[in-house]
């Protein structure tokens, strides 16, 4: 699989993730290897010298179509209102391999949608059992929340005893949502908020701890509606609950909307011009009277480098003091 | 010399109450003061389970069948007199003559019992019995050979894995021997899961020390210091005897540290499986042994390089391991002289189905199906016609009459679309419907699939659904093509051996019995008269004597008729229960399709497979969408 | 961090001390857990049974505030059993002889007595760490927030250089920074004694460089640290404070004193996104915007400079901090002009801060994050430091001695309070409590050992008061053996339970970090939780 990627060959897969142990579950990536009796899963077959591989032969394409026909035969096909419509691997591959319908009209397993946790829904009628969330939760987070339950056709990916996630070891890092190739796991905050193609994704740095995870903010109509993984940083796409679900404060009604000046021990809204003039006047006054030693400034470990630079420059050059610090020690 | 009375204690005979017989015998001997003259032994399986409980008397070798506790007083009489208890002797069905000893029983004549040699002859709960037969003696020889030489010997013997895949055992060992690891493991795969197969159980119950000896040889050869026996929890007797054997072997110094002064350390642990068929697959077995859900993983890496706890591990099946003492005893050359070019030695088969002599048989590779079924198995029960044989369990295939003279080995079977598998042989007679048969095996594999890979999880269910449609009379001609392409794709794309072989029963049945499938689909007829939905009952007017019995017994009132007039069945109302047919004293009622008596479906011994409709009622939270 | 985060996966032995990594730095915690899963070995030194203890080969449960004794004890065994890297020490370090003498005093037996850790475990841990080809030490505020914080850090560094675990891939010491841009704020010179890029204020050459660069005469004397500011304000020496994006009322120790100090000011300006507890004390509050509404860069704990990108437009009148500061400077008559915004500011930084010499927004957009030092535009950045020698020439051993914490438990205040974070909240909760995370954890739960709980008649979920010489708070309680007997653990996320009114403002004499990790308290039950149902009982028993 890696070799193909490096050579610009796109082999379809639903379960492969370079960070995780290869499970070889979905079988979408089967290829024809010259000399091999059966088709081989590209994700699980090491490259060897002189190996001849056909990645899109008739036999391979037919096998992939069969897998897709089987998957959609047991899948909630209400794509019209699906949150992943347009951003769904199953859809993408059905389109790529021209699978319009399935000849297998039989049992379809339907599960009630689990909405019990505050952050995301689990709609297992859409689950294709690729097992990525299972492996990821075990191998990266270490929480081992998900596993397969039941056997055969009845196999379901879920938590222990099918409990709500609050009753499990789940730490709500949300990484499972970001690897789900379909709409089995969806952030609640994005539900009915916008179609995938309407949502702008902006890569940025998480505002919480010092690990500096890269993430993508999902933005629609100038509002953040969710977060998804970004693999460009040293977090390699991993996130914790704070990065994944801790962004709502940006749109909090408590946000300060304009400058305030306290008059008669109550805050009054004023214009920027008034506020800045007032602050400048008071600063100048104290500076003239007491000198720079009367000032101190606390900068912010939350602000950007550029802002911190300006802040200390302001304290040192404008207010003439080295009394500048921040909460590095807290 | 003290005479021995050997009471079979295999699971088959135990379930036909051999324990009662044993206890009654013990009591009877004691009360008559004969307990000093006779040694009463509780042995492992004789293989001829059809005739159980079985008792043999040594040294004469008298072979008594179907003994109950009521026979005990007379039996003891005969023992005291040194005479034969004629009534209990086996009656040769051909000649109708009673035969005295085991070797004269046709069931045993064509067998070559190397691995099963001790089964039924020794007390499996006593290591001394095993030692008397030469047990553990190969160890001296083995420990004086370099491990590489042991591997060479096994390679030379041509031994191939008896668990199903048929991979050359010596080669597997060599890989593990070469692999680097601070520790290596040997696992004995005793998770025998094929319906109808019980050779591993019999060996473990009847001769557990042979398996331990085999494990010691294998462990020494690959450089393992620890062995595990992964055994089904459904085999309590085997678990018990194995645990006993391990304890005794440890006491005698055959297990533990510095075995027989060789410097070789080896310990064996028992781990009980939780009843998942897929755990017979080696990577799933290893996952299960590690405490994880038993699901296969892709190979490579093969367990031989990265197995249990990521260390080099060899997984060998019970029967494979039990062959090792044989090979080391007789020598690779002698062993390799048995069998065919590519398949050496013997293979144990479990004979079941519509055959006279059900049980375990050990035969040399290359024997024909005809020899097994007719010479050893005694042919089909109730004088019916042979129709097909399913070889290799649910993963195997269905072969018909044209294959009866096929010499059986690993490769010939694969070529014919079946496989050796673990050695289940299910014999079908003319009353078996081939659609129904495929349906049975598929419903098994479908439920036992681990659920990991798409084709096996989803595909086998769809195959089953198509078969369900067919037996319900809703099949369409294109369904047969659908079965074939889907089946082939499942085989082509599945992750492990389970999925790669699950469609075999359907595909082989389609290959050899396609007309029968076509009749189901096109004419909506089940020639075997099994598929209820395809039957229609009618009364042959000429034969009807208007006795009214059928009318009286029809639970739904579908039969009409007056005195003196032939009766009629209203096909709209008929529920196809078959009551009328059973009651008709004149044979005037027949089923359409076969003009033969409609079989009661329950005749078919594993038939508890719910059809689509029931399936949906059973499995809640599911509905039909289309 | 001397090395980068993902090198954790390449190391052989990880020593985690004073860091509840999986909760405070979860994604780094994943790396540690992944490393263990891949067969790497882990030593955890922590008084609490943190999640990593489950993954640890060795758990050293030392008493809070005894880190130096423990670290010196490890060094003792490593020296005694000849596990140290003689070549590395000889070539690249100095001060070894003195250090050797100090370490000699810390026999495992003595250390066991001070720390409460089994001497045998100390021996095992020392061997594990000392014999590793590559080892790394991860620490956080559990090491630094003590009156001996600087010494603690030195003791960590001693151990690393003693074993030559510096300057190679997969080795090093890894202090984990608590905030997204603490590293950057330090790099940018928001420190009383350093200009950007750690150029000392006291160095005349550095000063004149910046005077030329900024075209302004600069003050000579180093300034005050946060805690010193509080003191100076209380004493009336400070008249005016400008606080940008900080909430010292909740985050700083001895919170009551902080309030007092701020109220004592003549003029307080607070610039923030919310009307925080601190902002409420201000005369002027200037509204700033969040990370999602501005461009810029953050520097993470592994010195990786990464872009922050504007995702949405601000819907109110709030402005980015850089813009407010610039306008304020202009109002005060300084000719600041940054029409190019943060990208232009970064250009200025690159000119005066050598560590950032090669950084530009353009480059970050093209190449992704870069690790400093990155002195020139063609420099690829530096994944791990000290490859070719230490910044100061030779690595110095500092002989540091164990000293007890500033405040130890006594009869009146018999328990030790130690503080930290939980997974679902962050810092003073200004951000995290305004998100859905609040639904998972919305109140303080002081952790107390079952034995102590029994002594004070406390049951799970009871409400208790926790009191120190400086203040008193009420909190709900969680009875758990995650903490050892004698210790209470609390967070500082919840304004309803402002834990920092309890903590002590004693600081480390060198870097003035407050001792937030140890102070003496007493507890008292206030309200009994309604009868415990059976299930809770069961859980309680199970956990014990």
How would you summarize this macromolecular structure in one to three sentences?
By secondary structure, chain B is of the alpha/beta class. Chain B is built from 25 helices and 20 strands. Chain B has 5 domains: 3-105, 3-Layer(aba) Sandwich (Glutaredoxin); 127-336, Rossmann fold (3-Layer(aba) Sandwich), CATH 3.40.50.11540; 346-424, Ubiquitin-like (UB roll) (Roll), CATH 3.10.20; 434-523, NADH-ubiquinone oxidoreductase 51kDa subunit, iron-sulphur binding domain (de novo design (two linked rop proteins)), CATH 1.20.1440.230; 536-591, Alpha-Beta Plaits, CATH 3.30.70.
Q: Summarize the amount of helix of chain A as a percent range.
A: 10-25%
The total count of helices of chain B amounts to 25
> Separation of termini of chain B?
77 Å
In percent, how much strand structure appears in the residues of chain B?
5-15%
Ends apart, CA distance between termini of chain A? 46 Å
Mean pLDDT of chain A: 94
What integer value in Å does the Rg of chain A equal?
A: 27 Å
| Number of beta-strand segments of chain B | 20
Helix content of chain B: 25-40%
Largest interface: A-C, 109 and 147 residues
CATH architecture heading of the largest domain in chain A: 2-Layer Sandwich
Rg over C-alpha atoms of chain B, rounded to the nearest angstrom:
27 Å
The description of the largest β-sheet of chain A is: 3 strands, antiparallel
CATH superfamily of the largest domain in chain B: NADH-ubiquinone oxidoreductase 51kDa subunit
Main pleated sheet of chain B = 5 strands, mixed
Mean pLDDT of chain B: 88
- Strand order, main sheet of chain B: write it out: 12-11-15-13-14
Keywords:
heterotrimer, B: 626 residues, alpha/beta, Glutaredoxin, Ubiquitin-like (UB roll), 5 domains, 4-stranded mixed beta sheet, 20 strands, 38% helix, globular, disordered C terminus, C: 544 residues, Dimethylsulfoxide Reductase, domain 2, Barwin-like endoglucanases
How do the strands and helices of this protein lay out in sequence?
The complex is a heterotrimer of chains A (330), B (626) and C (544).
Chain A: H1 2-6, E1 30-33, E2 40-41, E3 53-54, H2 58-73, H3 89-96, E4 107-109, E5 120-122, H4 132-141, E6 146-149, E7 156-159, H5 175-179, E8 185-187, E9 200-205, E10 214-220, E11 223-229, H6 241-245, E12 260-263, E13 266-269, H7 272-290, E14 295-298, H8 305-318, E15 324-325
Parallel strand pairs in A: 14-15
Antiparallel strand pairs in A: 1-2, 1-3, 5-8, 6-7, 9-10, 10-11, 12-13
Chain B: E1 3-8, H1 11-15, H2 18-31, E2 38-43, E3 55-58, E4 62-64, H3 72-81, E5 90-91, E6 98-99, H4 106-109, H5 127-132, H6 138-143, H7 147-157, H8 169-178, E7 185-190, H9 199-206, H10 208-222, E8 226-232, H11 236-251, E9 267-273, H12 282-289, E10 313-317, H13 318-330, H14 332-336, E11 346-353, E12 359-364, H15 369-376, E13 386-391, E14 397-400, H16 410-415, E15 424-429, H17 434-448, H18 454-471, H19 477-493, H20 497-501, H21 504-512, H22 514-523, E16 537-539, H23 549-553, E17 559-560, E18 568-569, H24 579-583, E19 589-591, H25 612-618, E20 622-624
Parallel strand pairs in B: 1-2, 7-8, 7-10, 8-9, 11-15
Antiparallel strand pairs in B: 1-3, 3-4, 5-6, 11-12, 13-14, 13-15, 16-19, 17-18
Helix pairs in contact in B: 7-8, 7-10, 9-10, 9-11, 10-13, 17-18, 18-19, 19-21, 21-22
Chain C: E1 13-17, H1 21-24, H2 26-37, E2 41-45, E3 58-60, H3 67-80, H4 86-92, E4 93-94, H5 96-104, H6 108-115, H7 119-131, E5 135-139, H8 141-144, H9 149-162, E6 173-175, H10 182-187, E7 194-195, E8 199-200, H11 204-214, H12 226-234, E9 240-244, H13 248-251, H14 255-263, E10 267-272, E11 284-287, E12 296-299, E13 304-308, H15 321-331, H16 341-352, H17 361-367, E14 370-371, E15 395-396, E16 415-420, E17 445-448, H18 450-455, E18 463-467, E19 472-479, E20 487-491, E21 519-527, H19 534-543
């Amino acid at each position: 699989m890696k070799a193909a990627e490096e050579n610009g060959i796109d082999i379809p897969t639903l379960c492969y993730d370079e960070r995780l142990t290869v499970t070889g579950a979905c079988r979408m990536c089967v290829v024809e290897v010259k000399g091999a009796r059966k088709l081989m899963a590209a994700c699980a077959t090491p490259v060897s010298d002189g190996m001849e591989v056909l990645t899109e032969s008739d036999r391979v394409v037919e096998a992939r179509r069969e897998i897709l026909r089987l998957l959609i035969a047991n899948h909630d096909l209400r794509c019209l209102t699906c949150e992943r419509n347009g951003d769904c691997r199953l859809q993408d591959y059905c389109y790529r391999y021209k699978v319009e319908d399935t000849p297998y009209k039989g049992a379809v397993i339907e599960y009630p949608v689990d909405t019990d946790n505050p952050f995301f829904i689990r709609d297992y009628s859409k689950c294709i059992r690729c097992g990525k969330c299972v492996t990821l939760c075990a191998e990266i987070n270490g929480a081992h929340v998900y596993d397969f339950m039941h056997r055969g056709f009845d196999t379901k990916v879920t938590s222990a005893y099918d409990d709500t996630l609050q009753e499990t070891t789940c730490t709500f890092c949300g990484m499972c949502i970001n690897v789900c190739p379909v709409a089995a796991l969806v952030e609640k905050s994005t539900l009915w908020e916008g179609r995938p193609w309407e949502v702008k994704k902006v890569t940025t740095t998480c505002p919480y701890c010092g690990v500096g995870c890269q993430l993508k903010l999902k933005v629609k109509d100038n509002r953040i509606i969710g977060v998804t993984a970004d693999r460009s940083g040293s977090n390699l796409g991993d996130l914790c609950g704070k990065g994944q679900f801790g962004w709502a404060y940006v749109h909090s009604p408590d946000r300060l909307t304009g400058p305030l000046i306290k008059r008669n021990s109550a805050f009054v809204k004023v214009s920027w011009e008034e506020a800045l003039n007032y602050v400048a006047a008071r600063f100048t006054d104290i500076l003239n009277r007491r000198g720079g030693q009367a000032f101190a400034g606390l900068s912010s470990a939350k602000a950007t480098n550029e802002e911190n630079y300006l802040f200390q420059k302001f304290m040192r050059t404008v207010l003439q003091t080295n009394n500048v610090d921040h909460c590095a020690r807290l | 010399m003290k005479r021995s009375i050997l009471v079979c204690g295999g699971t088959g005979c135990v379930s036909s109450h051999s324990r009662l017989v044993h206890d009654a015998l013990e009591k009877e001997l004691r009360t008559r003061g004969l307990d000093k003259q006779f040694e009463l032994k509780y042995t492992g399986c004789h293989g001829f389970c059809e005739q159980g409980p079985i008792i043999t008397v040594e040294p004469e070798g008298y072979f008594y069948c179907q003994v109950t506790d009521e026979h005990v007083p007379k039996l003891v009489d005969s023992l005291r007199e040194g005479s034969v208890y004629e009534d209990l002797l086996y009656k040769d069905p051909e000649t109708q003559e009673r035969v005295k000893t085991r070797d004269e029983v046709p069931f045993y004549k064509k067998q070559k019992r190397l691995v099963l040699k001790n089964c039924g002859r020794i007390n499996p709960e006593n290591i001394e019995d095993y030692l008397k037969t030469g047990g553990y003696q190969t160890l001296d020889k083995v420990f004086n050979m370099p491990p590489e030489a042991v591997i060479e010997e096994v390679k030379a013997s041509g031994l191939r894995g008896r668990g199903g895949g048929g991979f050359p055992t010596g080669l597997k060992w060599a890989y593990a021997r070469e692999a680097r690891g601070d520790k290596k493991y040997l696992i004995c795969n005793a998770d025998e899961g094929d319906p109808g197969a019980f050779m591993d159980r019999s060996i473990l119950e009847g001769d557990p020390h042979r398996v331990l000896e085999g494990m010691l040889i294998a462990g020494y050869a690959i450089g393992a210091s620890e062995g595990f026996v992964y055994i089904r929890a459904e085999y309590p007797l085997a678990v018990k005897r194995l645990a006993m054997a391990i304890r005794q072997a440890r006491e005698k110094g055959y297990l533990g540290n510095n075995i027989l002064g060789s410097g070789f350390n080896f310990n064996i642990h028992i781990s009980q499986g939780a009843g998942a068929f897929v755990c017979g697959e080696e990577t799933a077995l290893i996952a299960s042994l590690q405490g994880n859900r038993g699901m296969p993983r892709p190979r490579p890496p093969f367990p031989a390089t990265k197995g249990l706890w990521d260390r080099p591990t060899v997984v060998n099946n019970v029967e494979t391991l039990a062959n090792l003492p044989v090979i080391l005893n007789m020598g690779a050359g002698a062993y390799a002289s048995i069998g065919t070019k590519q398949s050496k030695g013997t293979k144990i088969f479990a004979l079941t189905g519509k055959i006279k002599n059900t049980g375990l048989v050990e035969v040399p590779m290359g024997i024909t199906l005809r020899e097994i079924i007719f010479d050893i198995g005694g042919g089909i029960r109730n004088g019916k016609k042979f129709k097909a044989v399913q070889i290799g369990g649910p993963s195997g295939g269905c072969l018909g009459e044209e294959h009866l003279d096929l010499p059986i080995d690993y490769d010939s079977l694969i070529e014919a679309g079946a496989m050796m598998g673990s050695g289940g042989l299910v014999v079908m007679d003319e009353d078996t419907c081939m659609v129904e048969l495929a349906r049975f095996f598929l419903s098994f594999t479908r439920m036992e699939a681990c659920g990991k890979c798409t084709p096996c999880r989803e595909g086998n269910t769809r195959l089953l659904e198509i078969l369900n449609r067919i037996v319900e009379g809703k099949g369409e001609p294109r369904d047969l093509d659908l079965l074939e392409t889907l089946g082939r794709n499942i085989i082509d794309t599945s992750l492990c051996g389970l999925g790669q072989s699950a469609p075999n029963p359907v595909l082989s049945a389609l290959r050899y019995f396609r007309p029968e499938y076509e009749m189901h689909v096109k004419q909506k007829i089940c020639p075997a008269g099994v598929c209820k939905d395809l039957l229609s009952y009618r009364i042959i007017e000429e034969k009807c004597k208007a006795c009214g019995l059928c009318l009286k017994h029809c639970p739904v009132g579908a039969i009409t008729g007056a005195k003196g007039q032939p009766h009629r069945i209203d096909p709209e109302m008929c529920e196809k229960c078959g009551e009328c047919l059973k009651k008709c004293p004149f044979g005037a009622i027949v089923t359409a399709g076969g003009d033969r008596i409609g079989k009661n479906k329950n005749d078919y011994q594993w038939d508890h497979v719910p059809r689509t409709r029931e399936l949906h009622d059973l499995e809640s939270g599911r509905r039909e969408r289309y | 961090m001397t090395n980068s985060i993902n090198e954790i996966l390449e190391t052989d032995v990880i020593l985690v001390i004073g860091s509840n990594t999986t909760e405070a730095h979860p994604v780094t915690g994943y790396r540690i857990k992944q490393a263990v899963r891949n067969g790497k070995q882990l030593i955890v030194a922590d008084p609490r049974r943190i999640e990593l203890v489950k993954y640890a080969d060795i758990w050293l449960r030392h008493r809070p505030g005894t880190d130096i004794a423990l670290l010196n004890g490890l060094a003792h065994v490593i020296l005694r059993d000849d596990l140290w890297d003689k070549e590395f020490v000889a070539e690249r370090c100095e001060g070894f002889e003195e250090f050797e003498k100090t370490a000699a005093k810390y026999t495992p037996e003595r250390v066991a007595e001070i720390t409460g850790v089994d001497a045998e475990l100390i021996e095992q841990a020392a061997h594990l760490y000392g014999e590793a080809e590559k080892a790394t030490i991860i620490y956080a505020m559990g090491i630094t927030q003590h009156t001996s914080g600087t010494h603690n850090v030195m003791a960590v560094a001693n151990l690393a250089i003693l074993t030559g675990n510096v300057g190679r891939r997969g080795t090093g010491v890894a202090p984990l920074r608590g905030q997204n841009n603490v590293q950057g704020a330090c790099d940018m010179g928001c420190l009383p004694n350093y200009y950007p890029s750690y150029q000392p204020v006291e160095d005349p050459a550095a000063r004149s460089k910046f005077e030329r660069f900024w075209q302004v005469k600069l003050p000579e004397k180093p300034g005050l640290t946060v805690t010193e500011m509080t003191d100076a304000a209380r004493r009336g020496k400070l008249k005016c404070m400008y606080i940008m994006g900080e909430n010292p009322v909740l985050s700083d120790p001895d919170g009551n004193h902080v309030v007092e100090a701020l109220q004592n000011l003549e003029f307080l300006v607070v610039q923030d996104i919310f009307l925080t507890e601190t902002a409420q004390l201000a005369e002027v509050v200037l509204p700033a915007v969040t990370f999602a509404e501005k461009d810029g860069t953050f520097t993470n704990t592994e010195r990786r400079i990464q872009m922050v990108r504007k995702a949405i437009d601000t819907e109110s009148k709030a402005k980015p901090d850089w813009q407010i500061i610039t306008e304020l400077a202009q109002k005060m008559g300084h000719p600041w002009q940054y029409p190019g915004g943060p990208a232009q500011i970064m250009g200025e930084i690159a000119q005066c801060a050598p560590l950032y010499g090669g950084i530009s927004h353009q480059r970050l957009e093209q190449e992704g994050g870069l690790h400093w030092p990155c002195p020139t535009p063609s420099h690829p950045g530096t994944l791990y430091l000290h490859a070719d020698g230490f910044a100061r020439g030779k690595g110095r051993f500092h002989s540091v001695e164990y000293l007890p914490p500033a405040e130890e438990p006594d009869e009146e205040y018999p328990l030790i309070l130690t503080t930290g974070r939980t997974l679902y909240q962050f810092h003073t909760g200004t951000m995290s409590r305004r998100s859905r995370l609040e639904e998972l954890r919305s109140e303080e739960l002081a952790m107390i050992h079952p034995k102590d709980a029994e002594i004070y008649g406390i049951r799970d979920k009871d409400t208790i008061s926790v009191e120190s010489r400086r203040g008193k708070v009420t909190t709900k309680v969680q009875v758990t053996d995650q903490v050892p007997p004698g210790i209470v653990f609390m967070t500082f996320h919840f304004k309803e339970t402002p834990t920092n009114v309890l903590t002590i403002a004693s600081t480390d004499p060198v870097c003035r970090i407050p001792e937030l990790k140890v102070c003496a308290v007493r507890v008292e039950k206030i309200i009994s939780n309604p009868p415990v149902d059976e299930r809770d009982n069961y859980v309680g028993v199970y956990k014990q």
